Amino acid sequence: MTTHGGSEPVFCTVVPPHLLDRLARNDDPALSGPARRTLLRDSELRGRRRVTAEFRLAAAPAVKAPSDQPLRTVYDCAHGTDLPGAKVRSEGQDPGRDATVNRAYSGLGATFDLYLKAYRRHSIDDDGLPLDASVHYDEGYNNAFWNGEQMVFGDGDGEIFLDFTNSVDVIGHELTHGVTQYTANLTYYGQPGALNESMSDVFGSLIKQYSLGQTAAEADWLIGAGLLAPDVTGSALRSMKAPGTAYDDDVLGKDPQPATMDGYVRTGRDNGGVHINSGIPNHAFYLVATALGGHAWEKAGQIWYNVLTGGELGERAFFNDFAGLTVKAARERFGDGGDESQAVKKAWEQVGVRIL
């Protein structure tokens, strides 16, 4: 396991702050109220995560999973905020009546399966880390997050966002923040932060594709399909196929993600635009995966996984650093001059990232 001197867990949410900021300014209290409470809760949790990381307050899990089997536990917060909540389903137990609990349990399993069967990775830390998730967190909580130790899901406000267990790629996205935490540990700011977010989108999408048995051509390449309420004009939180097109709504505004460096957004908000500029490496991955065809986790995913876990990707890597390593990984895995390395080079050229 590569941790570049030790993992530094950060508080990572799937809904970008700019969306919640916009909702918080809405005149309708049914929209602004839950968004403001979510922003306040996220700010509190982010500060708590920093203290925990700095002073190493989080105890290491005492139980390890069997080598090739997940060890899942789902808890119910019953709309409170004390984590993890009451245990409601353990590994091997049959589904219960709560669909949210069942979806969380299945999503944890789908994530474990992709990493194990495609990449021989044993859970998030490659050492059998138990997979814990808490559902029904807080009242009208408009987010899901990885807090460095476990997954947490809100139920949404019902007006803009629905249950955050609805999308298996969201579950995979957040758990992949844990994989990044235990490997390249990309700094959560600016371009390395956008790469951090992109890694989660890439593998979140691959987890959905793997669970559905989809090829790259069959996949929708959406992140968070099923999260937006019926009256919202949009299909998802993000699109890897066409960044900037996931939603265009009177309340939420227009999806701000760029697909190429021509649209790169320079901002001090959202940790330097980590949820916005991630559209650029996201689109590069989509281009590689669809150019190579077949199952995206087999070639494109393998290249990205090798870079994430290989030990050469620096914590403060920029897009061009990452791009160069993907070309190198493609050559090492599939040979120089083959379709794989050519597809990787072309994709980065198309999104405007210069390979050093």
Note down, in words, how this protein is organized.
By secondary structure, the protein is of the alpha+beta class. It has ten helices and ten strands. It has helices at residues 17-24, 29-55, 99-119, 168-182, 190-212, 270-273, 279-292, 300-309, 319-334, 339-350, and strands spanning 12-13, 72-76, 86-90, 131-135, 144-146, 151-153, 222-223, 238-239, 248-249, 253-254. It has a six-stranded mixed sheet with strand order 1-5-6-4-2-3, with helices on one face. Strand 5 and strand 6 (151-153) form a beta hairpin. Helix 8 crosses helix 9 (319-334).
Brief overview:
The chain is of the alpha+beta class.
Q: What attributes does this structure have?
A:
single chain; 356 residues; alpha+beta; 6-stranded mixed sheet; two-stranded antiparallel sheet; 10 helices; disordered N terminus
Integer average pLDDT: 91
In terms of DSSP E residues, the strand content is 5-15%
Which regions are unreliable across 5 or more consecutive residues at pLDDT < 50?
1-8, 49-61
Element order: H for helix, E for strand? EHHEEHEEEHHEEEEHHHHH
Mass-distribution shape: globular
| Straight-line N-to-C gap | 27 Å
Radius of gyration, taken over Cα atoms and rounded to an integer in Å: 19 Å
What about the largest sheet? 6 strands, mixed
Structural class: alpha+beta
* Main sheet: strand order: 1-5-6-4-2-3
The proportion of residues forming helix, as a percent range, comes to: 40-55%
What count of helical segments does DSSP give? 10
How many individual β-strands?
Answer: 10
